[in-house]
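The authors assume throughout that readers already know how a fold can be written as discrete tokens. A single example would do more here than another paragraph of explanation. An entry of this sort, consisting of the sequence and the corresponding backbone structure tokens, reads as follows:
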Amino acid sequence: MLRTAKLAKSAVPTHTLVSLAREPGSDFAYEFTLELSAVPDNPDMALSAILTEFGRLIKEEYADSFPGANKAALIVDYSDVGISGMEIKGRAAILTIAPVSLSYDANTRRGKLSVRFNPGQYEEAREWIRKNIETLARDKNIALVTGQLPPAATYDSLGEILKDGNILEIEFKTE
């Protein structure tokens, strides 16, 4: 079972794991509830720090449950996460995603991203790839200003191919 993080001089607010349960029929998705010991001054920063730490702990839990899992390929993908007062609730999917290839031509603004994922994780892997294409598009096509994140970028999907049942390849063009 996961341990509660209580680091004396940590930037992570003190919190307690209230519940952690695998979703029925899934061996990689969990619903969780965390409780803060105090209302944070900056809820967004607190949530980010807590989820980063929680992600490390839940990856360890997953790797302990599935000893053959490649720890380096584990990614925690959060959804439906919210903070309300002293409580954080959400869903965490532990995805095994390994990049197979990435090509991007800044001149034509076209690229292709391929990743390998565990069987049964198609929808989650597809969403993760889409989020990462948006990041690539944002970082590659807009003049960067030091210390500032560029605005969101968009892309058009030019096609998706599923190979061997667990490799998803998406071709895209950035705007």
